[in-house]
Amino acid sequence: MSAGFDAKAASVKGVEMRRARAVFKAALAKGEFRLLEVYDQAESEDASQVLRGLRVEWFLRSIPGFGVTKTRALLERLGISATATLGGLRVRQRTALRAEVATLYRRYFPHQRGVLVVLAGPSGVGKGTIVSWITGHFPEFVVSVSATTRPQRPGEKDGEHYYFVSATRFEELVRADELLEWALVHGSHYYGTPRAPVDELLDQGKNVILEIDVQGAKQVKRHMKNSLSVFIAPPSFSDLEDRLVRRGTEDERERRRRLMTAKRELGRQSEFDYVVINASVEESGQSIVDLALASKDPQSTKE
Ligand code: 5GP
Q: How far is the CA of 193 from the centre of ligand 1 (A)?
């Protein structure tokens, strides 16, 4: 025994640590922490010893429904030893395991993730204003930034309003399956939703709003059954015409094209989970927030 080593104190500390770990594991299993967030925190040198010293095997087994056999098979596949701790993983193991933990988190704790809210509706109906109202009043709602091949308009910022990309880059994103959905909108330009940022925001528990066209909305619903799709309709068609003229961002020809698309889109409202008629921004915004929060209720999110 080396000088100065207090065996009694060390064993008391050991007992405390084990007790703290047991409490932590129980809380994790009850879903009191976000699994993925905990995993990411363990990477930091500053994380508590309770967390960094937790065995990977125990971490995985705290997922209700993920038993011993599945845990061991996963560790074996990733070449991680049975005694490895969260804080002691090699970089490559940590990265590989993170992808697996993300998948497990999404499968076993869907109720902890945010809601994906898909908003569609004809051009000029006021989707953008409603979205700004929601994100301005409810910080737990964020809007996804799409990629598009359409030219940047004055006042628009790359990375904020859209990611303005070339047709070649857009095709690359499609080929690499990096878009959650994409479509040719108004027959002129491509628009698509980058997948990774949406998944990460949902993992953090944020409710993510996609403001996209009807074709894209259908694609999302097909892949993500738990998403909420809302069609925003104008009080009347003439109201929509007035709004487009008032907005004045399109010339006469483009306006006519958008109104034609709008007619087609209005005929597809029944394909959505809900229709909100935009008579007032506040009421429409609040309705969408209420629908999103209601769909988060564990009773209604079961697939
Ligand atoms: P604008 O060119 O006026 O910004 O947008 C035109 C239309 O493209 C809007 O009606 C909007 O809903 C749609 N849009 C914007 N981003 C996306 C996207 O990522 N995917 C799809 N499918 N449509 C989008």
A: 9
